[in-house]
Write a structure and sequence with these properties.
By secondary structure, the protein is mainly alpha-helical. The chain is 68% helix and 2% strand. It has 2 domains: 161 residues, Tetracycline Repressor, domain 2 (Orthogonal Bundle); 126 residues. The chain contains 14 helices and 2 strands, in the order ααββαααααααααααα. It has a two-stranded antiparallel sheet. β1 and β2 form a beta hairpin. The N and C termini lie far apart (73 Å).
């Protein structure tokens, strides 16, 4: 009997641990790659080795990696707090009802302890890294807590705050690696985040009981969101193209070929619009279109192509003769 009780107890503990891991949503941490953007576009990933070969810049990439991890931990805390606040609304959502807290797999007390631990650990680590980085991390956390408790109920302000979170990630990456972030980078980040945010709201608006699942959806209209998607998508594409053609950008990278990456950006925006509208030949199965696009083969291949071309152009890689 003791073995049986111990076995059941161990199974429950493992189930709860798995639930805690899912609660911090590691699959959503890809958003924190924006922290790496300043280092990546400042040509700090590689340095010249002793024999002229490219070598990884361990000092800068190390700080950038730590900064990204800190934001992942903070994001995990924010997701946990959000699930605690939204637990009743999540229980009537067709997908969110499967979240560990909503389904009772993770006790609310355990979730609160985990959230508090993640906040303390991440902010202490942020302070050790850089004072300005720590300040941005605190602003990111406070903004997200305000969003979770109150501001997410305000239509359009909710999406604007999501966009602000992405801008703060980029700024944090700049301070962590001592890189000055350009206005173009901030502009592209803000517009892209607005575009993705409006896409998510457009997807949610089509669900049953939309207003019960997210209060702000009562004040959104499909036609208005379609217009917002089109405007922010076009603005994102044009801002990125202007960035690649700007004389300052060309001088910084010592190349005029960065515009070759623009077609990938245009296609990525177009593909996302297809996913949101349901014209991509597949129904949305994920919780959000931003999550769905990471499962979409054409989008992922396009993203990989963009990264490869950016690396080749920015770092001026050439095949050896």
């Amino acid at each position: 009997m003791r073995v049986r009780v111990g076995t059941v107890s161990g199974y429950c503990a493992a189930a709860m641990l798995g639930g805690l891991v899912r609660t911090v949503r590691p699959h959503q941490w890809v958003k924190n790659l924006f922290v790496l953007a300043p280092m990546f576009f400042h040509k700090d990933v590689f340095v010249t080795g002793p024999h002229g070969e490219p070598a990884l810049n361990l000092s800068v990439t190390g700080r950038a990696a730590v900064a990204t991890l800190i934001f992942c931990l903070l994001a995990g805390a924010v997701y946990t707090i959000n699930d605690l606040v939204d637990v009743e609304a999540d229980r009537v959502h067709p997908v969110k009802q499967l979240r560990p807290i909503a389904r009772g797999e993770v006790p609310e007390g355990a979730a609160r302890v985990m959230a508090a631990t993640l906040v303390v650990v991440s902010l202490l680590a942020a302070w050790r890294l850089n004072a300005m980085f720590a300040l941005i991390a605190v602003l990111y956390f406070v903004e997200n807590v305000a969003y979770s408790f109150k501001l997410k109920k305000v239509a359009y302000l909710d999406v604007s705050l999501i966009a602000l979170g992405f801008v703060l990630r980029v700024l944090a990456g700049g301070y962590a690696t001592s890189v000055q972030v350009s206005g173009y980078m901030l502009g592209c980040t803000a517009l892209l985040a607005l575009f993705l945010g409006f896409g998510k709201r457009r997807h949610e608006l089509a669900l049953e009981n939309a207003g019960k699942q997210r209060a702000s959806l009562e004040y959104y209209q499909a036609r208005t969101l379609n217009i917002a998607l089109l405007l922010t998508g076009v603005a994102t594409a044009l801002t990125y193209l202007a960035y690649t053609l700007d004389p300052t950008t060309r001088a910084a990278f010592n190349t005029d070929k960065l515009w070759l990456t623009a077609p990938f950006t245009f296609y990525g925006i177009f593909r996302f619009l297809q996913l949101v509208s349901g014209k991509a030949g597949r129904g949305l199965k994920a919780e959000s279109p931003t999550q769905e696009m990471l499962r979409d083969t054409p989008f992922v291949l396009n993203l990989i192509g963009w990264v490869i071309v950016v690396v080749v152009v920015v770092y001026q890689l050439r095949p050896h003769a």
